[in-house]
Design a protein that fits this description.
Layout: E1 4-5, H1 15-26, H2 43-59, E2 67-73, H3 76-87, E3 91-96, H4 99-109, E4 113-119, E5 141-144, E6 146-147, E7 152-153, E8 164-167, E9 184-188, E10 198-204, H5 221-226, H6 236-252, H7 255-275, E11 279-281, E12 292-297, H8 300-312, E13 315-316, E14 327-330, H9 337-351
Parallel strand pairs: 1-13, 3-4, 3-5, 5-8, 8-9
Antiparallel strand pairs: 2-10, 6-7, 9-10, 11-12, 12-14
Bound molecules: 4'-deoxy-4'-aminopyridoxal-5'-phosphate (PMP).
The site of 4'-deoxy-4'-aminopyridoxal-5'-phosphate (PMP) has 11 residues, from α3.
């Protein structure tokens, strides 16, 4: 039975990833060992880790002599704290575009002065603020490129002269950008990278080592770099599953190809939403996310109908976040367009009853 999983994360991954990951659990590459029992210091795992780290830089077109990719235990929320511990000396700027950036701000405030240079709080984060001025003496600017909960996305990346730090949890590897404009990118892996339980950090080496604070070892990016990303026991299976997913993307043709597919999925769904007068999009048109599409019905009665139709069509995890309400269809890289086509049919089916 085909299930159409629109979850905001953890989310659907490619079928080939499930297949290969499950084979590796039983017998990793005919070694007679499960991937779950191999040592993080084994040559097998070091090969997995290094291939995954290199593939990250390759897919982002980043120079491996300037940037380092790290798979770290924790999650994006851990990076909310690791980033200021490593980079905040006196003062940093943050753009507040929703729950996740607010949480990043909260963590940074414990470690130095934080200037909230812009916020879209006034309209429940349905847009991306673009009119702001940065002050002086800032260690970095932090922003969240895609706002998973509200369905908004930065179309233009802030152009600044200070180090640029981005929480790219919900749109990394989904669209072509000049990734060399960022000094640090981080992401919880559970959307476009792999199964939950890790964060990916891509850091420009030269920005580290500038704070004078004593950073606890496990929180210190430089420690992880110095130990070849093996400062402590790695999440062996998690990294392997990330590698399988990164290989899938690479074999597909990389970010350019997936971006075209993502554009097709998002425009099909937004076109449908705009064409049906009993549905409204939640985010401002200009800042609509191509990863998380938020919408609602004009009349409450239609929701009940939609919920029933979704159940019948095996559409799952489409309810909106509790702070926004309505619905949210997450269209991450591995979601096939066929799932969006089924959703579109269901949305149109409601019309006959409206
Ligand atoms: N940032 C963004 C943009 C997110 O979408 C999420 C989770 N959905 C987080 C941060 C927090 O991630 P985690 O649960 O991995 O800490």
């Amino acid at each position: 039975m085909k299930i159409h999983n629109f979850s905001a994360g953890p989310c659907v991954l490619p079928a080939t990833v499930y297949q290969q990951a499950s084979e590796a659990v039983l017998n990793y590459q005919n070694s007679g060992l499960s991937i779950l029992e191999i040592s993080h210091r084994s040559s097998e795992f070091i090969a997995i880790l290094e291939e995954a780290r290199q593939l990250v830089l390759k897919l982002l077109s980043l120079d491996a002599t300037q940037y380092t990719a790290l798979f770290l235990q924790g999650s994006a929320s851990m990076e909310f704290l690791r980033v200021p511990l490593n980079l905040l000396q006196t003062k940093a700027a943050y753009i507040d575009t929703g729950t996740w950036s607010s949480k990043a701000i909260k963590e940074a405030k414990g470690l130095g002065e934080v200037v909230e240079v812009a916020s879209s709080r006034d309209r429940n984060y349905t847009y991306i603020p673009s009119d702001y001025e940065l002050g002086t003496h800032l260690d970095y600017l932090h922003f969240t490129s895609n706002n998973t909960i509200y369905g908004t996305q930065f179309v233009e990346i802030p152009q600044v002269e200070i180090p640029l730090v981005c929480d790219m949890s919900s749109d990394i590897f989904s669209r072509k950008l000049d990734f060399s404009q960022f000094d640090l990118i981080y992401a919880g892996v559970q959307k476009n990278i792999g199964p939950a339980g890790l964060s990916l950090v891509v850091v420009k080496n030269e920005i580290l080592g500038k704070t004078t604070r004593a950073i606890p070892s496990i929180m210190d990016y430089q420690q992880h770099i110095n130990h070849g990303n093996l400062y402590h026991t790695a999440n062996v299976f998690g990294v392997y599953a990330c590698l399988l997913n990164l290989r899938w993307l690479n074999d597909l043709g990389g970010i350019e190809v997936i971006e075209r597919m993502n554009n097709e999925k998002a425009s099909l769904l937004y076109r449908t939403i705009d064409g049906l007068d009993y549905i409204k999009g939640i985010a401002d048109q200009k800042y609509r996310s191509k990863m998380n599409v938020t919408f609602d019905f004009e009349a409450a009665g239609l929701k009940e109908l939609f919920d029933i139709y979704c159940r019948d069509a095996n559409i799952v995890n489409i309810q909106g976040h509790r702070s926004v309400g309505g619905y949210r269809a997450s269209l991450y890289n591995a979601l096939p367009i066929e799932s969006v086509e089924v959703l579109v049919q269901v949305l149109e089916q409601v019309k006959h009853k409206s």
